[in-house]
Amino acid sequence: MASEATTSIPDMTMQLVSYQSAVDAKLQEFNAKNFTAGFWQKQADLWVQDATAQQSLRSFMGWLRVAETMLPRVPEIEEFAREVKAAGFQHVVVMGMGGSTMTPIVFKQAFEKAADGLPLSVLDTTNPATVREVEASVPLAETLFVVASKSGTTAEPLAFGDYFYARLKELKGDKAGENFVAITDPGSKFVTQATAEGYRRIFLNFAEVGGRFSALSYFGLVPAALYGIDIKTLLERAIGMMRATGSEGEVAQNPGLELGVALGVLAQQGRDKLTLVVPAGLSDFGLWLEQLVAESTGKEGKGILPLAGDPLNSPQVYGQDRVFVYVGYESQPDADNRAKVAALQAAGHPVVTILLRDALDLGQEFFRWEVATAVASAVLEINPFDQPNVQAAKTATDQLMKVVVEKGALPQTSSPVLQENGLDYYTSVSGADATEVLRNFFGQAKAGDFLCIQAYLQETPAVNQELDELRALVQQQKHIATASGYGPRFLHSTGQYHKGGPDTGLFLQLTTDHAQDLPLPGRPYTFGTFQNAQAAGDLQALHDYNRRTLRVHLGTAGEEAGVATLLEALRKALA
Ligand SMILES: O=P(O)(O)OC[C@H]1O[C@H](O)[C@H](O)[C@@H](O)[C@@H]1O
């Protein structure tokens, strides 16, 4: 069926400089114990030795053959997309968190919408301004809402579903369910709700495929087909990569094994910041990769920190904690990025280069990286399929939301160490003014550390640009890696590494008073309160893990103006 897709695999080269011999030794060790064969047989002792962990690990390896499982289901998914268009739908909004929405985010950016596809939006934040923006940008009655949640219990997608269902009820009464589709695991509580609410369709995914390994299941493919992507070719290329990594028996060279062993060994030797360099059209691939790698490897004080969007600079700015991975298109010169990566390689940094023929090669890249991440986890001797520290933030948030339900508002937990120009600073370091607080906070940075911006704000091009400037400034002056994520998205992604990985992060949390908040129907709180509780809950969790934090509350300053004020103080602090 897919035999024509087996031979041609996108080009990958690895320049591992002084690490080559250590990587070769580990590869030899893995080959000597027939790692590839054991991997496909789900031999859990390749990762961990504890019997319970082994059992859990085995039960999440359904992703290994999910592309093959999905290939015969392509006609069913495509028929569904045709039916939706024939029913007059004009727009699709996919709503969910983490692994349930990362793939549609990548697709939307990497592919032009096909002529017969429907425009696609993704909602993965509780930020009220963003929810309003999504609502205002779609023709509600002709919009198909895809509520995507593997567990069916994640608070955000359930809130999004309830919000838009209430809106549609106002427009269509009992027929509101026609505009809703669920993607979830069999037996989830959400199946019951979606059935009761008359959802147009419920796609049952596979319990043995974890969220961040679900790109090639219904979670990625249903939105892709609605957007008009050729999902059959996407899957065939993934199957090509499956075969290259040994799904049908011995292979001379296994690209997933080689990449994973390299990343694992480099991390063990201190090169634990996987710095992704991509052309503009692939920047959201970085979001997907961040979740896969950080949530799989960032635990037990170990891990690989993937960095998407860390400013690309000249070699002397970087410490000895980097491996650079360039993913681009064969046919696209992307001259500036490639020249900088070449300079980094010449200066002795390890560099991996992967070149795609076109965006459909993402099918095989998803699979390559899933294998590589699982292999790197075997090198680090951890279970790649759990996320034990994500729960800490959820539990703290749930407790805060209980207070909101009982008392009507979030508790005031601590006082700011400083208030200046409309901004409140909360941190354990002190200072007479913002410049001094910031200088003292960043004064804690040492080689191998990273800055992590956690923005509980509305994502806009202007705020993105300001955060990029902030990252560039810190990188330039402190020579540390920089990461940035919008909350609550990153809580379901790199948040695992922040709490479970090594204690090398300096966390800068940005919060705001929501000028235009939005009530949640049937609940005694708003989206804004929910988002602020998520920020407070995660801050609590970071403190529980003794992480270094600075929360800057932008108050009513307005997000763009508030971040601008912070930037100004930071420029002085780091000058
Ligand atoms: O798909 P769901 O069950 O709603 O889960 C969405 C996300 O939530 C959790 O926080 C996990 O850490 C993620 O791995 C997962 O992708």
TrEMBL record:
Source domain of life: Bacteria
GO cellular component terms listed in the entry, alphabetical order: cytosol
Catalytic activity: alpha-D-glucose 6-phosphate = beta-D-fructose 6-phosphate
GO biological process per UniProt: gluconeogenesis; glucose 6-phosphate metabolic process; glycolytic process
UniProt keyword Amino-acid biosynthesis present: no
InterPro entries xrefs: G6P_Isomerase, SIS_dom_sf
Pathway field: Carbohydrate degradation; glycolysis; D-glyceraldehyde 3-phosphate and glycerone phosphate from D-glucose: step 2/4
Class in the EC hierarchy, top level: isomerase
Keywords assigned by UniProt, alphabetized: Gluconeogenesis, Glycolysis, Isomerase
Gene Ontology terms for molecular function: carbohydrate derivative binding; glucose-6-phosphate isomerase activity; monosaccharide binding
The enzyme's E.C. designation: 5.3.1.9
Pfam families assigned to the protein according to its UniProt record, in alphabetical order: PGI (PF00342)
Family: Belongs to the GPI family.
UniProt protein name: Glucose-6-phosphate isomerase
Source species of the chain: Hymenobacter psychrotolerans DSM 18569
Biological classification of the source: Bacteria, Pseudomonadati, Bacteroidota, Cytophagia, Cytophagales
